[in-house]
Amino acid sequence: MKYTQKILPFLVLLTTTEASATDGYFAHGYGVKSQAMGGVGIALPQDALAAAANPAGLGLVGDRVDFGVTWFRPQRETQLVDTAGGSKAFDGDYDANDTENFIIPEFGYNRQINPKEPLIYSTPPP
Questions:
Q1: Inter-residue contact 96 to 77 (CB < 8 Å)
Q2: By the number of CB atoms within 10 A of the CB, which of 36, 39, 75, 99 ranks highest?
Q3: Which residue, 30, 29, 24, 28, is CA-closest to 106?
């Protein structure tokens, strides 16, 4: 029994396969920095592209101009097995990689109107 408990995790690791996916048309972040951090641009604005996820973040990034390029290369293919109720009518390999590379440009510009104003406004005491 002890031998089985030790070897089972190793066997599970050997039998796992790769799974790759994209968000398709929906970006998990806007801007190279936000994408690299898993889309945290909503809570942690780092560049002028913060307005795409959270316009309030522009108050925290200051005056700046940002340019960037994202290379998007999805691998879209599948293999169908035992389709149409086992009749195998649609079995085969399908490849949708007619266009493999997508270059997505990005540009952001931010200029503060009044940098001396506080970020948090409160009403004065009476």
A1: yes
A2: 39
A3: 30
